[in-house]
UniProtKB/TrEMBL annotation:
Organism: Alicyclobacillus hesperidum
InterPro entries found in the cross-reference section: Creatinase/aminopeptidase-like, Pept_M24, Pept_M24_MAP, Pept_M24A_MAP1
Protein name (record): Methionine aminopeptidase
Binding, substrate: 77, 175
Entry-linked HAMAP family: MetAP_1 (MF_01974)
Domain Peptidase M24: 12-238
Protein keywords: Aminopeptidase, Hydrolase, Metal-binding, Protease
A Pfam family annotated for this UniProt entry: Peptidase_M24
Function: Removes the N-terminal methionine from nascent proteins. The N-terminal methionine is often cleaved when the second residue in the primary sequence is small and uncharged (Met-Ala-, Cys, Gly, Pro, Ser, Thr, or Val). Requires deformylation of the N(alpha)-formylated initiator methionine before it can be hydrolyzed.
Name of encoding gene: map
Enzyme Commission number: 3.4.11.18
Entry keyword Lyase: no
Amino acid sequence: MIVLKSRHEIALMKEAGKVVAACHEALRAKVKPGVTTLEIDAFVESFIRKHNMEPAQKGYRGYPFAACTSVNDVVCHGFPSDYVLQEGDIVTVDMVALHKGLHADSAWSYAVGEISEEARRLLDVTKRALYVGIEAAQIDNHISDIGHAIQTYVEAQGFSVVRDYIGHGIGRQMHESPEVLHFGPPHRGARIRKGMAFTIEPMVNVGTYACKLDDDGWTARTEDGKWSAQYEHTLVMSEHGPEIITEQAE
């Protein structure tokens, strides 16, 4: 069941979204060669807690960290570790803040120093795919119109869209209805209504969209070892259309 959010709930989600966005803004200077992904995780946890919020991913279904850090061929849910980021890597940092019972969620991919032309294009196309999806998230459109727009754009650029991991409703639970696919035909599923809140979070691969899971049961990688990127925002729907509550300052 899709739960429409009240003004009060949306206000709390917006406060959480501001903290998530500010943390991503701060990470721009933090993500660089020589930094470990565990250091990134510690920074995220400290930042969220300093703003009197909870890092909601920590402990969620047994997940042991405040953030997911997905490097190069890792699609999503990468475990922070002693891995030292290298010049030319890309890393996606995914975080969720919980504020007075309401959540906000955003993932962002970062270049580590100077990256290859292919990696830069992957980041650019993936970020653009996020905003293509947001543009399709209009009142009275269908949820599937979002994924259709993303898939059409991404495949025209010569990349692929991950099928195994998708966007989701969000609010009092981290994951709620509706499911937000980043692929598929248009004009399917629920219509988008005022008060809905959900994430759009396309994961885009250089090669095949197929994924495989590491033995830790969380870390998803591309099946062919080629690189992947992800960008994610949390949206709330007003009568005027989508409002991005995790939007970052330029």
